[in-house]
């Protein structure tokens, strides 16, 4: 055994780098593939969780950001910019620090989780809250990157998807072959595109014998791909995927169609239920958007779209600590006791 070296070094021969590329890394990737005992029981499938919240900044974005910032550094960039619902900005800010670059981030005002805002700020990003939604922020960031000397590190940057495809490699490396089905949340649709790229690459090179059916899930109030048209005012409690006009829309449809999968919607209520289930019965604390993958799996099994007995991987994309408000909402408040064993035992129902 040797120490994990980050996704660029681990998969160097499958990524667009040379011996001279200055790799910017926080040793991202190598995340656990955790058997989901309870979800397996409930669905009759063999379910695994790819726990991406254990990346350095707490989301899958780090896989893409190590590549995007590495290539920006190789090109001599001094500054990067992104639009974000929170995780991309947290990741960009951290990797920019590693590279000695400045980082500008545009976020929808009042619609990003507190933990993500804190990350961008503590890493010294220049943060603007935009009076608009994510789609407006992305349009602004694109314009600024065209007119000013600042590199765009959103997933429209092809290096981002190259980095993110390594999650598929890790899954196949861990399971010995591709699963039957892969479920993940869909927002700007970069990640489903990247996973599909990774699975296809391994199959084409004979590392795996097959590819999985790709199942993507949007929140029902922010489900443009499901509806077949942009959503002008996307609404969902899962702020990470509150996106009405995904940049990788067409490539997500391609992933769906080539793989024989489906992109569907789940309600906020289903997302919240899956979020609580993962925390209370699997011991895995994810953020709301991440739970859309598991909510979607349960819905698809119920509807007969995924066969019982299938081997399924659900990507849980971000760490629950980023947005603790939803964990506290609905939880009973903690009881205060004096420094007294009997009082504590009574309060705990032990006495
Ligand atoms: N899950 C989480 C936790 C996310 O932060 C995102 C996207 C997604 C899922 C959806 O992934 O966009 O590739 O389809 N967050 C972006 C951001 C938009 O700005 O952090 P996608």
UniProtKB/TrEMBL annotation:
This protein's UniProt keywords: Amino-acid biosynthesis, Lyase, Pyridoxal phosphate, Threonine biosynthesis
Positions annotated to bind pyridoxal 5'-phosphate: 87, 187-191, 317
Catalytic activity entry: O-phospho-L-homoserine + H2O = L-threonine + phosphate
Domain Tryptophan synthase beta chain-like PALP: 24-318
Record-listed cross-link Isoglutamyl lysine isopeptide (Lys-Gln) (interchain with Q-Cter in protein Pup), residues: 143
Domain of life per record: Bacteria
Family classification: Belongs to the threonine synthase family.
InterPro entries noted in UniProt: Ser/Thr_Dehydratase, Ser/Thr_deHydtase_PyrdxlP-BS, Thr_synthase-like, Thr_Synthase_bac/arc, TrpB-like_PALP, TrpB-like_PALP_sf
Role, per record: Catalyzes the gamma-elimination of phosphate from L-phosphohomoserine and the beta-addition of water to produce L-threonine.
Transmembrane residue ranges: none
GO MF assignments: L-serine ammonia-lyase activity; pyridoxal phosphate binding; threonine deaminase activity; threonine synthase activity
Name this protein carries in UniProt: Threonine synthase
Pathway given in the UniProt record: Amino-acid biosynthesis; L-threonine biosynthesis; L-threonine from L-aspartate: step 5/5
Species assigned in the record: Marinactinospora thermotolerans DSM 45154
Classification of source organism: Bacteria, Bacillati, Actinomycetota, Actinomycetes, Streptosporangiales
The EC number(s) this enzyme carries: 4.2.3.1
Root EC class: lyase
GO biological process: isoleucine biosynthetic process; L-serine catabolic process; L-threonine catabolic process; threonine biosynthetic process
Residues with N6-(pyridoxal phosphate)lysine modification: 61
The UniProt record lists the keyword Repeat: no
Cofactor names: pyridoxal 5'-phosphate
């Amino acid at each position: 055994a040797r120490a994990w070296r980050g996704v660029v070094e681990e998969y160097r021969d499958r990524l667009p780098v040379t011996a001279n590329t200055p790799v910017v890394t926080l040793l991202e990737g190598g995340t656990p593939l955790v058997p989901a005992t309870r979800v397996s029981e409930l669905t009759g499938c063999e379910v695994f969780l790819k726990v991406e919240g254990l990346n350095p900044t707490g989301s899958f974005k780090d896989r893409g950001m190590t590549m995007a910032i590495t290539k920006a550094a190789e090109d001599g960039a001094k500054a990067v910019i992104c639009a974000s619902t929170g995780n991309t900005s947290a990741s960009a800010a951290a990797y920019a620090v590693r590279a000695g670059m400045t980082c500008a981030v545009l976020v929808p005002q009042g619609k990003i989780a507190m933990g993500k805002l804190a990350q961008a700020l503590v890493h010294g990003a220049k943060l603007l809250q935009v009076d608009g939604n994510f789609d407006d922020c992305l349009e602004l960031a694109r314009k600024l990157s065209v007119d000013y000397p600042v590199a765009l590190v959103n997933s429209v940057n092809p290096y981002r998807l190259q980095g993110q495809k390594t999650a598929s490699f890790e899954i196949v490396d861990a399971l010995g072959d591709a699963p039957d089905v892969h479920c993940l949340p869909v927002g700007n649709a970069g990640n489903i595109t990247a996973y599909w790229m990774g699975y296809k690459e391994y199959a084409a090179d004979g590392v795996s014998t097959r590819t999985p059916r790709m199942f993507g899930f949007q929140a029902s109030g922010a489900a443009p791909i499901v509806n077949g048209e942009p959503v002008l005012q996307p609404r969902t409690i899962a702020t990470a995927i509150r996106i009405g006009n995904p940049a990788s829309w067409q490539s997500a449809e391609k992933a769906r169609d080539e793989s024989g999968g489906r992109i569907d919607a789940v309600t906020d209520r289903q997302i919240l239920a899956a979020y609580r289930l993962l925390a209370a019965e699997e011991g895995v604390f994810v953020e709301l958007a991440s739970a859309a993958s598991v909510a979607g799996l349960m819905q698809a099994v119920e509807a007969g779209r995924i066969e019982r007995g299938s081997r399924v991987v659900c990507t849980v994309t971000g760490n629950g600590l980023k947005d603790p408000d939803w964990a506290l909402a609905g939880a009973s408040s903690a009881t205060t006791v004096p420094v007294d064993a009997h009082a504590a035992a009574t309060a705990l129902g032990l006495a």
